[in-house]
Here is the input.
Amino acid sequence: MFAAERRQRILELVRSSGAISLRELASQVQTSEVTVRRDLRALESQGLLDRRHGGAVLPGGLSHEPTYSEKALVAADAKAAIAKLAAALVSDGDAIVVGAGTTTQAFAAQLTRHTELTVVTNSLLVATGLAGTRGIDVVMTGGTLRGSIHALVGGTTEQALSTVQGTRAFISGNGLTAARGLSTPNLTVAGVDRALAAAAAEVVVLADHTKIGTDALLQTVAAEDIQHLVTDDAADPAELDALRELGITVHVAPASRARSTKIVSESVSIQAKS
Here is the structure.
């Protein structure tokens, strides 16, 4: 891939996610992290993106909030693996709180095997995914619909959550670092995410590798208030170690190995046909 073509692809990836890690960029454009760093410097000098520790964001990207459609295009395999692993933290009889996001939507799909569960959520996608599932009671918070993320937000949502005390809160965000914890670019969403975290005895963050080591404008949950992180094996090892040092239990889903197996299987299939 020529430099100009590679840099155009990097710009497309940054624009689709709002913020993306160096590791993910190198994987997507199939080159070294050293080369990607050089590309990022060149693109930043043209005002096309901003470099951040461990990755890149759109200009003003700390305040950029990707839509549901944009998020759905990023790290789908990783999100599916995270969802499956996170579901193991739920037991029959639990009352859990689930926030909005594409990863929490995938997580909710893994809960249908339960026969006795209460789920409190502000996410239309989570509620719809669980609607009609026998043995699962779904409680929606109410609030103002934020259409870009298919979630209920605002004072009504926060008030409803203040009356809840669940076993665990499963939430996502736009970035997670050991220094700042979980963060998001939107003030209204930040208030609801804090309320979600406060509505349970433990906080479980679901974050794929593109979010590990990146920051958004507003802190929602400090790292010391997070008990569990569920991520995938492409996440930055140094950042995960820093999170572990803060007492967070880190659960790593083998998403990249699953992708590799899939690619090998497809290759064998193609060769067999030829």
Q: What stands out?
A: Residues 63 and 185 are 4 Å apart (CA to CA). Residues 258-274 have pLDDT under 50 and may be disordered.
